[in-house]
Amino acid sequence: MAPAITTLAADAPALSAANTGFMLICSALVMLMTPALAFFYGGMVRVKSTLNMLMMSFISLGIVTILWVLFGFSLAFGTDSGSIIGWSSDYVGLSGIGITELWDGYTIPVYVFAVFQLMFAIITPALISGALADRVKFTAWALFITLWVTLVYFPVAHWVWGTGGWLFEMGVIDFAGGTAVHINAGAAALGVILVIGKRVGFKKDPMRPHSLPLVMLGAGLLWFGWFGFNAGSWLGNDDGVGAVMFVNTQVATAAAMLAWLAYEKIRHGSFTTLGAASGAVAGLVAITPSGGSCSPLGAIAIGAIAGLACAMAVGLKYKFGYDDSLDVVGVHLVGGVIGSLLVGLFATGGVQSKAKGLFYGGGLEQLGKQAVGVFAVLAYSLIASAVLALIIDKTMGMRVSEDDEVSGIDQVEHAETAYDFSGAGGGITGRTTATATTVPSENTKVDA
After folding, report:
1. What are the pLDDT digits (tens) for 330-340?
2. Which of 17, 157, 167, 279 could form a disulfide with 257 if both were Cys (CB 3.0 to 4.6 A apart)?
3. Where are the domains of the chain?
4. Whole-prediction pTM
5. pLDDT band at 271 (very low <50, low <70, confident <90, very high)
6. Of 187, 192, 234, nearest in space to 374 by CA
7. Which residue, among 189, 207, 191, has the nearest Cα to 199 in the 3D structure?
8. 17-414: CATH homologous superfamily?
């Protein structure tokens, strides 16, 4: 994110209509990523959990937006206090900000920066939800989001991107969210699932995606929105850095998808659509922190490494026995760690800043900084998230009952089902009751 990378950013005395319009478009693209994530996750679960999975992403749009306006923006980007947290009374309720007041050092209004950052805050807890599919009470999830963004996301965002934040001051490079978004969410997912346990039937029952077309649609929309996520994080279009990030986003994603598919073919004998979608997301995750510091050739290497490593990592849940339902740990945590650390190898010193990685004569200095950022965020998010989940679980209960999980969380939590088969064959006169109920029950049995 540009505020944490100031080496090449020039002071700007006047509002730029071009940069402001560009950033509003990027904000809209990042907002689209949360519904896209809902479709991506929603297609990967069984029929009986589809709506719940969609809602676990959509509710973040409501909760985090309100919290961000009330106090979140102030905590993340207000005046630094002890290099840990921010606070500015003018940002509380966004009430003390002038409509043409510029974000310090840039040509866009504070309001535009605030709304762009809001979209990052929204999607980060939504990413966690994929690890918890099929088994979490919706009220407990809503409370978890509220507590988590307040106690984990807002402080970590300040560490990484806020002026005065300790990782910011150390010189950790995170262009668009490898630590603050992906490692943060992936570590949180691991912390929560260690507390709430496995799904009923884990390792025993088939839990295949019910709609791969939905998965591919979600992945495609995520890829599209990610250009705003990444290229927009330079907060302007004046010096070409955002353009490099745009190119590197495309390049790394393509390389990761191909690497994942190649691994699948060698290991399992098939090129799967789920593998293509997952590989693309792995590449997007890995290039997020690193794409502003590397060349397109470096982006190919980063994407390929991430695609291969994440494809291997998703199977670790079976080896170690943690039930990461939709591979949030394997893709977002592992991909975020890889992308963040590889800055220390592939940074050229000629794009977003002068910092160079090992392969460009910079030695191990930047790699060391990246490692501190990676493991600090990972440890804090893992522990804090597990504690929050434990508190919620011991007070109101985090999981639905075993019977409700088996029968279907959609009906229990939302009183709805994703697909209504009751009208199958409707309109044909003379159909008997037995015939009319045969198709719905068969579909329900197979898909659930």
Report:
1. 999 999 999 99
2. 279
3. 17-414
4. 0.91
5. very high
6. 187
7. 207
8. Ammonium transporter AmtB like domains (1.10.3430.10)
